[in-house]
Structures are given as C-alpha cells and as structure tokens.
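Hi everyone, sorry if this is the wrong subforum. Our group has a chain we'd like a structural model of before ordering constructs, and none of us has done structure prediction before. Sequence below.
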Amino acid sequence: MAKDSRYFTISVLRESGVVYYGDCTALFVPSEKETVVILAQHTPMIMKLGVGVVSIRGGSESQELANIKSGLLYVGDNEATVLIDL
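Answer:
Right subforum, don't worry. Here is the predicted structure as tokens:
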C-alpha cells in the first residue's frame, strides 16, 4: 500500500491478466455520463464504467492505461480495483 498520503494503490485487470498495478495520485475512469476522478482516501464505492479511457496521474506525470468498452470500479481502504472489458 502507498506510504505517501497523496498516493493510493490501484489494480487494473482484464480477463487476460494485469494491465497495471502500482501507486498513483489520481485515477480517471469513464462513467456512463462523464469522467470520474478518484483520489487518495476516496469514499468506498462500486461503480459501473462506460466507454472511454482509464488513465492515472502520478505526481506530475499522466499515463493512459487502457481504452475500454465497459467495466467495474471498486474503491476501498485507500486502494482501487478496475475490472475492464468483462
């Protein structure tokens, strides 16, 4: 788990395996209506994802992780799990 309070741990998974595992300061995921931003210490939640791009920011660097058609997001205990293209 991330030690710096600005960071949290994320896992991005698809059926074929792990797309990304690591720490970030912000996670951007597409909902059915707009992009949602998840930050450290976010309220626990489960959300259905829509079509779009999953990306992260770590400090000042941004990185696109996957273009998705659908998925699920789970946030809890200062970590997030994104299941894509189920």
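For your construct planning: The chain has a mean pLDDT of 94. The first strand starts at residue 8 and ends at 14.
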